[in-house]
Amino acid sequence: MRLNAFGVGINGFYLAIDTVVLPVLVLILAPEALKNTYLAALGLSGLLVAGVIQVVIGRLSDRTQS
Q: Other C-beta atoms within 10 Å of 26: how many?
């Protein structure tokens, strides 16, 4: 596995979105009593999607030839 500038940039971008932008959006859009629940659900759904996508893309990558 190689680490390149693109990977570092993408990880930095998503780290900024995850730690700054999503909590601000939850503060703006979610009802006051459910802010923590919405933030937790948003984080958990992101983790689940990332887990599924990595498995699917990994299997596709193993099946393709380049």
A: 19
